[in-house]
Amino acid sequence: xxxxxxxxxxxxxxxxxxxxxxxxxxxxxxxxxxxxxxxxxxxxxxxxxxxxxxxxxxxxxxxxxxxxxxxxxxxxxxxxxxxxxxxxxxxxxxxxxxxxxxxxxxxxxxxxxxxxxxxxxxxxxxxxxxxxxxxxxxxxxxxxxxxxxxxxxxxxxxxxxxxxxxxxxxxxxxxxxxxxxxxxxxxxxxxxxxxxxxxxxxxxxxxxxxxxxxxxxxxxxxxxxxxxxxxxxxxxxxxxxxxxxxxxxxxxxxxxxxxxxxxxxxxxxxxxxxxxxxxxxxxxxxxxxxxxxxxxxxxxxxxxxxxxxxxxxxxxxxxxxxxxxxxxxxxxxxxxxxxxxxxxxxxxxxxxxxxxxxxxxxxxxxxxxxxxxxxxxxxxxxxxxxxxxxxxxxxx
Length: 396
Ligand code: ATP
Ligand code: MG
Description:
Layout: E1 4-9, H1 19-34, E2 40-45, E3 48-53, H2 60-67, E4 73-82, H3 86-102, E5 106-113, H4 122-136, E6 141-142, E7 149-155, E8 160-163, E9 167-171, E10 180-184, H5 190-200, E11 204-211, H6 218-235, E12 238-244, H7 246-255, H8 261-279, E13 284-286, H9 299-306, E14 313-314, H10 322-332, H11 335-338, H12 360-366, H13 372-381, E15 384-388
Parallel strand pairs: 5-6, 5-7, 10-11, 10-13, 11-12, 13-14
Antiparallel strand pairs: 1-3, 1-4, 2-3, 4-8, 4-9, 7-8, 12-15
The chain binds adenosine-5'-triphosphate and magnesium ion.
């Protein structure tokens, strides 16, 4: 094959004794993510992942796109492999990068020789290839300080590789090395970003969504499943637990003081999410909460909401500004779907004057009349587990 992807490992290389485990996980993730695109060999040597197509039918462009969103990779490039021989290297550069060189005014060659048995040093390789290229591309001069384009030559164990500038990778840690988390996914801007951010730290993600049919529509549910699908681009396939929340919301409306509606509702969400999390082996909950954004996101409100669970609650957006969150949402491709107008169950029965500084005692008193266990058991009985994959048809 005359093209291969090389991906440089990120923080993974820093992890000492765990390095092997991290690399194995990353290799497994890359293999799985390449499956839809054909037959690829995936291996790791010297902190570099090699993604090598094994036959002509492989969809290289599709595979490349997928590689750009794999966590644990700091940078990646498409390369032409060639024999470890200076003439072969020159021909490979000409064939593979010649057109790029014709389009720029200046260039340099940067070489790396990890195979120390190769007869030329890195500097000598750069000088030799640079000299020959300057002759064959008279419109493009060598500029080692401020080149418009850099040709890279890497002489490694089994072959030499030539490539142009690398692209930044998705960063973070390989999915799976950070344990498994249950993200409370609404149809808003924040929670998909929260799921993405924790996935980027190596967590495997499962989601839970509460919906209140007929107060919220089928479209609102599809919107959430579509958001989940967009996030799977980064974290791989996931399960979304869809929980019917109607009875609980009606019970709250009929039995609790209005100013506590949202808080009590959120306490149910947390508790139900924790139960599903424990069943499914998730060690933490993830929410898109952000300090001060709405009445239920004051410190006091968060304390009351968090009091029903005993596993950690990760809130990766808690200290961010809205513009920062929106920028991430735009960047990862969830923003457009998030801002579609379908209502969320949080907007059903919203109190006119929500309590912003509740105490736990007040809230416990406010929910006294509810039969929590029965309501929770009913909700758990309603769970629909939906498997979401990136290659599913878009739902909206
Ligand atoms: P988002 O933009 O994520 O909807 P928000 O700013 O609208 O957040 P809230 O509505 O108070 O804030 O929700 C806070 C968090 O609670 C959300 O980020 C999400 O993690 C969770 N959440 C809210 N509504 C739901 C729901 N219907 N199903 C699952 N989780 C929810
Ligand atoms: Mg919301």
